[in-house]
Amino acid sequence: MRILLFSGKGGVGKTSLAAATGVKLAQLNYRTLVMSIDPAHSLADSFDLGEALFHRTTSDPLPINDRLSIFELNIQKEVKRHWQEIAAYVTSVLRTTGISGVEAEELAILPGMEELSAMMYINQYRREGRYDVVVLDAAPTAESMRFVSMPTTLDWYIKHIFPFQRNLIKVVRPIANKVAPFELPSDRYFINIQDLFEKLEGVDTVLEDPGITSVRLVTNPEKMVLRETQRAFVYFSLHGLTVDTVIVNRVLPTEVMDAWFNEWHQSQERILREIEEYFAPVPVKWVPLFAHEVLGMQRLEDLAGALC
User: Fold this and answer.
1) Of 218, 216, 214, 215, which Cα lies nearest the Cα of 11?
2) High-pLDDT (> 70) share of the chain, %
3) Residue 160: what pLDDT?
4) How far apart are CA 285 and CA 278, in angstroms?
5) Which end of the chain is less packed: N or C, by CB atoms within 10 Å?
6) How confident is the model over 250-255, as a mean pLDDT?
7) pLDDT at 231 over 90
8) What is the C-alpha separation between 117 and 112, in angstroms, rounded?
9) Sign of the C-alpha dihedral computed for residues 243, 239, 73 and 211 taken in this order
10) Residues 260-307: pLDDT tens digits?
């Protein structure tokens, strides 16, 4: 199974390009899943599914055709599937402070739950052989960094802190529960953590294997966006991931000859030269700025054609 992770600054067009890549791969007869791990999902909007404002059908893989499915990770649903004991305990602690109902449930969604849930699915699909390619529509750069660093962080916690913490609480729980304002976590809480770690086992090796996983950095021909793309390139490289393509989105077409665009053309030409020089020998692809912002398969097929 191949994993393609699309990352970049917010607003550069990651989702559209990830979706277009998924469309092209499906056309090439690969069983493809495009998965959004950005909490602000817009993957379903790219396909113009014509549903309600908040999509529910995409919280599980939704077939677009016989070779292409899309999946927008829904953290509320994932908490019930994978994080029940952990979320239940955090919610109970919050209720002792006077926070209850929806507020307690929302606060019980801890940082990292979404990223770890996505990794569990990646591991699951790899073991099952369900898809040939998984295209990850990642969150903006900072969240993407947290995503790729999660396995290392969790592995360190499980090996160095988890056993000590579990044994300590087991010893002090009978006494502490009599005097503390809330009960210490039961052993089911720690079993839940251990089960989650087992589902993630080996995912760090998968992400760092260039034969399986590669990063596609999406940028725009603008100075500020380029600087973040350069930082992202360094961050991913330090984490052991391979960047195999840089995609420059929304390049002004040469046929736009209006005098008003002269400065834009000159600015973009300078930035494009800098991109080519900085990222060499990594391939750089240009995607033109389309005249109309159309959603749906036709738009994605146009983008897919531009990527080839």
Assistant:
1) 218
2) 95
3) 81
4) 14
5) C
6) 88
7) yes
8) 8
9) positive
10) 888 889 999 999 999 999 999 999 999 998 766 556 777 788 888 877
Alpha carbon of residue 248 to chain centroid: 20
Q: Tell me whether residue 162 is exposed, middle or buried, using C-beta atoms within 10 angstroms of its C-beta: 0 to 12, 13 to 18, 19 or more.
A: middle
DSSP string, the chain: -EEEEEE-STTSSHHHHHHHHHHHHHHTT--EEEEE--SS--HHHHTT----SS-SGGGS-EESSSSEEEEE--HHHHHHHH-HHHHHHHHHHHHHTT--HHHHHHHTS-TTHHHHHHHHHHHHHHHHT--SEEEEEPPSHHHHHHHHHHHHHHHHHHHHTHHHHHHHHHHHHHHHHHHSSSPPPPHHHHHHHHHHHHHHTTHHHHHH-TTTEEEEEEE-SSHHHHHHHHHHHHHHHHTT--EEEEEEEEEPPTT---GGGHHHHHHHHHHHHHHHHHHTTS-EEEEEPPSS---SHHHHHHHHHHH-
CB distance 134 to 3 below 8 Å? yes
Indicate the range of 65-79, 88-102, 183-197 predicted with least confidence: 88-102
pLDDT digits (tens, 9 = 90+) for 184-230: 888 888 888 888 888 888 888 999 999 999 999 999 999 999 999 99
Q: Are strands 62-63 and 68-72 parallel, antiparallel or unpaired?
A: antiparallel
